[in-house]
Design goal:
Order of helices and strands: HEHHEHH
Radius of gyration: 17 Å
Number of domains: 1
Largest sheet: 2 strands, antiparallel
CATH topology: Four Helix Bundle (Hemerythrin (Met), subunit A)
Number of helices: 5
C-alpha cells in the first residue's frame, strides 16, 4: 500500500462527512422554515454545491496524477485540515439548529455570539478557507489548492454579503467590530 491509499481514504471520509453534514443541514433548514424562517441567497447555493463536490474530485484526480510532497509538508497541511474540521464543528455546535448550508433566517431570533462567534463573524467560513487550502496540500496538490481557493474566495464574497444582509441590523449591531474571518483582522 502506498501513501496514496490513505490520502484517498481521507478524501472519501471527508466526502462521507459532507453527506452527513448535508443531512443535518436539511433537517435544520426544514425546522427553521417551519418556525417562520426565510431562505435568502438561493442563487449562489447550486454553485456552492458544485464547487465543493468538484473540489473533492479534483483533490483525488491531482493526487492520482502527481507524486506526493515530502512528509513534513504533508503533515503540516494535514494538521491545518484537521484544525479546519475542528473549527467547523465548533461553529456548527455553537449555532445548533440554526446551522445550515443554506441561508435561512428566523425573524426576531437573537444572534448567536457564543463559541467561536465570540471572536469572529464567520468562523465556519474560515474553516472552509483552511480546508480548501490544506486538504489538497496534504498531498502536494497545489494546483487544486490554488484554483479552488480562488473560486472559494469569489463564492464567499457573494455568500457572506447575502448572509449578512439576511441577518439584518440586530446581527450587525451584535457583531460590530468583530472581524469576519481572521482574529485581529478588520471587521
Amino acid at each position: 500500500m502506498t501513501l496514496l491509499h490513505p490520502y484517498l481514504a481521507l478524501l472519501a471520509a471527508v466526502a462521507l462527512e459532507r453527506g452527513l453534514e448535508l443531512r443535518l443541514s436539511e433537517r435544520n433548514a426544514r425546522r427553521a422554515l417551519a418556525r417562520g424562517g426565510v431562505e435568502h441567497g438561493r442563487g449562489h447555493y447550486p454553485v456552492m454545491v458544485v464547487m465543493h463536490t468538484t473540489f473533492l474530485l479534483c483533490c483525488a484526480a491531482e493526487a492520482l496524477a502527481f507524486p506526493a510532497v515530502p512528509p513534513a509538508a504533508a503533515l503540516a497541511a494535514l494538521a491545518g485540515a484537521a484544525a479546519a474540521q475542528g473549527l467547523r464543528w465548533w461553529a456548527v455546535a455553537a449555532l445548533g439548529e440554526r446551522w445550515s448550508t443554506r441561508v435561512v433566517v428566523v425573524p426576531g431570533a437573537a444572534p448567536v455570539t457564543g463559541g467561536p462567534y465570540r471572536w469572529l463573524r464567520h468562523p465556519n467560513y474560515l474553516a472552509v478557507v483552511l480546508e480548501v487550502a490544506c486538504l489538497p496540500l496534504a498531498w502536494g496538490s497545489w494546483r487544486t489548492a490554488l484554483l479552488f481557493s480562488l473560486a472559494n474566495a469569489a463564492l464567499l464574497r457573494v455568500r457572506i454579503r447575502a448572509e449578512e444582509r439576511a441577518l439584518g441590523p440586530a446581527w450587525e449591531a451584535a457583531f460590530a467590530g468583530r472581524p469576519r474571518l481572521l482574529p485581529g483582522g478588520r471587521a
